[in-house]
Amino acid sequence: MKGNNLVYIVLDSCRFDSFVRASTPNIDRIGQVERRFSFASWTSPSHFTLLMGQVPHTSPRRVFASEVYKVQFAQWVDRLGIPNLSFKTFVPELCLPAVLKKHGYRSIARVSMPVLNPYAGFTRGFDDYSLMGNHNDFAGMVSQIEFPGGEPRFYFLNLGETHYPYMLNDKELPKISGLHGIARGMDELLARSSDTPTDEPEFFAPETMRFLHDQQVRCVEYVDGLIGQLFLKCPADTHFIVTADHGELFGEDDYFGHGPVMHEKCFEVPFIEGPRP
């Protein structure tokens, strides 16, 4: 039985209230946004969870966690129209693209974050996996997407537009590296003597925090416009998931960014799913 096509869009670092503030007429056509929670506070572990077949959770009370996982895996039946998908279907690999491959899918990933590069362990089960050359190239991803017919397709898209520096000119902002950037500069860091002053960027002022939060909202609106173009390329039997891998802090309780941060806003994410409108 041929399953539905699947387009899975991850707005990197997009926190829930940024999405809600944005005007998203195209995404709104997919379904109603839900407030959900990521399993992790930064890109790499969150994407491992998503590619296991889990989605951001609702943090239900008075339930056994193991039952929540089982229900989430079973929901792929309704999404894809393939009967008998369950937790047992996903074990032992616990790999969404591998499961779909067994059902005749061609799985394609386009990612924006260097920490998700093809050498970082995320390619398992994909037929085609690549890191985009530009941090903000959802438009390029859309241009590459095609559905030639015959086999169903699974597109997994990690978007950098909603990640710092939020499509701004990073030459005008402090250099803030993610884990990948820190690792590249580790040799230089270790070569410094312990008494050498570090060049730590000055913490953002409140007005800068507000500006950056507003800019993330504008980035969501930019992405929404491209999703409208993507709809035109997708067959009617395409199921969409639009979510985020984690949230972001914009000065709340003296935090900025995400990662080694234990704060609700770092875990709040939007979640929307439904058929192509």
Descriptors:
277 residues; alpha/beta; Alkaline Phosphatase, subunit A; two-stranded antiparallel sheet; 9 strands; globular
What report would you give on this structure?
With 277 residues, the protein is of the alpha/beta class. The protein has a single domain (5-275), classed as Alkaline Phosphatase, subunit A (3-Layer(aba) Sandwich). Helix content is 34%, strand content 17%. The chain contains 12 helices and 9 strands. Strand 7 and strand 8 form a beta hairpin. Mean pLDDT is 89; it is low at 177-197.
Mean pLDDT: 89
Radius of gyration: 19 Å
How much of the sequence lies in strands comes to 15-25%
CATH architecture classification name: 3-Layer(aba) Sandwich
Distance between the termini: 23 Å
Spatial order of strands in the largest sheet: 2-9-6-1-5-3-4
Strand/helix succession: EHHEHHHHHEEHEHHHEEEHE
Note the overall shape.
globular
Helix-and-strand structural type: alpha/beta
Examine the coordinates and then state which fold CATH places here, giving the name of the CATH topology.
Alkaline Phosphatase, subunit A
- Counting DSSP H or I runs of 4 or more residues, the number of helices is 12
DSSP strand tally: 9
The name of the CATH superfamily reads Alkaline Phosphatase, subunit A
Q: How helix-rich are the residues, as a percent range?
A: 25-40%
Summarize the main sheet: 7 strands, mixed
Poorly predicted parts: 177-197
- Structural domain tally: 1
